[in-house]
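Morning, I've got a small favour to ask if you have a moment. You're getting the sequence in one-letter code plus the fold written as tokens. Thanks so much in advance, here it is:

===
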Amino acid sequence: MSPPRKGFRKCQRCERNRAEKFFTSARGKVCSSCRKKTRSASAHETRVQATYGLGPGEYAEMFRLQGGKCAICRQTRQQRLSVDHCHKSGVVRGLLCRRCNSQLIARGARDSPVILRNAADYLEDPPAIRFIGKRYHREDGKK
């Protein structure tokens, strides 16, 4: 096969000469068509099974049992739900949206139920209201 002409390059997966616009970056080696095929449902199922030890169809069953919603915020999302697991024991806990999944690890929660309960108590009964009464935030910073 001849080398690709200017403005084109060869995809390493399908081996077709594709226009530069089909690659995600200047260094990308796989075209967007091949990348989309890789991200198909079967590829997701295979990756989830290998990573989290789930059996065939268990992700779909958890998704169905949760009503297609995040286990924490109970909202549906456009993107697939993430498989949440304990970072100490590795036990799979359920399916979460990306926002809720990142909140369990980030911002001090560190997978700790005690910290999350304390955060809920804080939101329900803020100490500042008890100490100084209600004060209101102003966008412009003026009184």
The mean pLDDT is 84. The helical segments are 32-38, 41-52, 58-65, 98-105, 113-124, 127-132.
